[in-house]
Each structure stands twice: as C-alpha cells, then as structure tokens.
Design a protein that fits this description.
Radius of gyration: 27 Å
CATH topology of the largest domain: Beta Polymerase, domain 2
Structural class: alpha+beta
Distance between the termini: 24 Å
CATH superfamily of the largest domain: Beta Polymerase, domain 2
CATH class of the largest domain: Alpha Beta
Number of strands: 15
Order of helices and strands: HHEHEHEEEHHHHEEEHHEHEEEHEEHHEH
Strand content: 15-25%
Shape: elongated
CATH architecture of the largest domain: 2-Layer Sandwich
Helix content: 40-55%
Amino acid sequence: MALEGDVLKRIKPSPAQDRKVDDIVDELRELVVSEARKLNVHIEPMLVGSVAKGTHLKDPDIDMFMLFPESTPLEDLKAHGLAIGQKVVPGKEHYAQHPYVRGVFKGFQVDLVPAFRIRDTRSKMSAVDRTPFHTDFVKKNLKKGMADEVRLLKRFMKGVECYGAEAKVQGFSGYLCELLVMRFGAFKAVLEAARDWTVGQALELPGHPGKEFPEPLTFIDPVDATRNVASAVSHETLLRFILASREYLSSPDSKFFFPAERGEWSAAELRERAGDRLGNIISVSFQRMDLIDDVVYPQFRKSLASITALLEREEFEIEKTSIHVDDRTHLVVEVGSMALPKSKKHRGPPVNSENVSEFLAKWNSVGKSAPYIEDGRWYVMIERKHERADQLVKAKLDDIPLGKDVKKLGKFKVISGPEVLAKEHLAALTKHFDERMPWQR
C-alpha cells in the first residue's frame, strides 16, 4: 500500500544512520568493559531492545545490559552496575527490579542496565534478567521482511497513543509488537485481527501455550509460559487500539501514524466547548515530582481513586476523571452535580432489630425528620455535612489514602468554579474535555 510505504520511508533509519548507531554501540561497549576492569569486575556487555533486533525507528534509544555472573551478590551487582553506568553515561538513576542509569551519549538516550547472565530460562529470574532471552528469541524467529512490519506497527501504536508498557501509557511494549507481527505475519494483518478482539482476548505463538491470565489482553511469553507479555495493557488502551484498527482499515490515513498535536484551548474555547460541565469540575493540583513516571503514575491513579471514592461515599456521582502533568500535576474530577440537597436519607436497622431503640433515641431529637419505616427498615432524613463536592474534597483531602510520595508533598491546590479557567489549568482542562481520538484531531 502506497500510504504504508510512505510512512516506512519516514520512520526507517537509513543505512548511514544505522552505521552511526552501530559505531556508538561499539564505543559504548568498549567504555563499559574498560570501566568494569578498573573496578576489577567481570561483565559481558549485551545490546538488547529494538536496535539489537533491527526493529528500531529513527533516532532510537540504545539499551545495553551489563551482564554479571549469576553468582554475583545482588548488592554488588547494583553498586558496580550503577558505578559503571555513571562513568560511561552520567545521568539519572532509575529503579526497576534492578537499578540502572539513563543518560545521553552523542545525542542518543542510553540505558545501561546491570543484570544477571542467566543461562537457563527455567531458572528463577527477574523481568530484567529475562530481557536478553527476548532479544535472542526475536533475532532468531523474526522472518525476513517482518522488521519493517514491526516498524509500521510501532509507529501506528505511537500515533494512536497505545505504545509503551510504562505506567504512564499502560500500552503495548516493543516486544509485544514484535510478537504480534510474528503471530499474524504483517502490520495490516495485526489490525485485521485486532478489529475483532474483545476484552479478555488471549493470544500465543503456535507451539507456545501458557496459562490463563485475568488482564484485558493476554499474549503468552514464548520465553516464559508463566508470563503475560501484554499484562501492562489497560482496558482503555486495548479498546482504543481496537477502535483505531477498525477505523484505519475502513479509511486509511497518515493521521493514524502522525496525528496533529493537541493544542491548548483558551478560556473562551473551554467555556464554549465544555458549557455547563465546567461548573462541575474539581481539580487537585500539586508540584511536579522529580521521580520517574513508573513511580509516580501508579501513585497519581491511587490518589485519584481515593478522591473519587470519598465523593462517592457521600453520594456524589462521578462523570469522568483525568490526569495531566505539565509544570504541575493535575488530578481532575468531573461530578454530575457540584451540590446535593441539604438533607439526605439515612438508613437505620430493620424494624425487628435489637438496635431499634438506640436508633430512635438518637435520631428522634436530631434528625431533619422523624424516623420512619420503609420496606421493613427504619430511616431518617439527616443533615448532609458537605453539600458541595469541592468543599468535601478540601475538608477531607488530608485524611484519605494518597500515593506515598504525593502524600509527602502536603501542599495541594483544590480549585473549582471560575478558578479552573486560570492559565495554569488550561492544558489539563483541554485534555479532559477534548475527547477526540488522536487521529481525529
């Protein structure tokens, strides 16, 4: 197809670009070995990821593992791995199952990751230690011509905002894209299969069965049958990919690969587009945290879930929530109505319960109504402590379980009403109310 050929020309590295990357990889490998010798440490550098597998796009990240003997104490692996990493590509330390260093080397983002050299896939290992087996499997099993099909699928995933297994995206990893192309044979064949997927879809490569998993999408890891490669994919991401597959097959367009940026709406545009919904917005914002996305996004989601649970306990209906990070982090909650009636119905015990006397004695004098019987149970109308959703959040935010590092900040800005249209909140509100898919912009 001409469109896909044109896309491939835009995303596939030229031979000259690949030679440049190869030279940088060789230089990194030599530097890693040199620094290891200075520490009297024996390691085996191994290029992993998309560059190693030949499925990378232009300007790729370079992932190099520093493989330590399996007998190395874990603390030594961590200490020596970070020390070597900081010498070769001074940068920020990140923490997964093994800590690693991410820095920039001659214009390329580089991850230098310490891991154990595991010889047998049956051995107990971390997800990090398993990565070299993934690299070897793809190099051995990706058929000729499939690398470009993987590139198209990756660019499509990026365009429709489904690419990346990290906590921020909850989407499809590069390895999962490679397996999908292996399973179905080509980029378009993956989309043709995906348009008929449902939540709970289970996939595997022929000859590589595995157990069932509870996630929205399952793809059995051919390297480890106890692992679901698609475990990171959320309901929302899966459904977006299914929809994108259907719409692209119906009407192919380069916007699926290269969507327009979401522009920030002005206050006037938000008033016009959101209308009365603006009056039902509560935004909890706080300073941006200097931590990696995989650490903070689960905390953002936990904090947002606690806020919505608080509101629901007090009978406020949640219409929609969203998270946006710019100079600050914004947790946005849209309720069905900002205000509820001053009185609410309070349920008491069944009419034949032993607690009836206690209930009546308490509420006869302080209820907003006299206790009454309905469907075999006592009820009373009582005064609502918080009639407004924003007042409730302001009053109780410090008392609910937030993410650990979010809680430590302790400085939250809870806004509603006209304040939400202040300049610093426009990008967050644009994201919340702009409900178009990326390819529809």
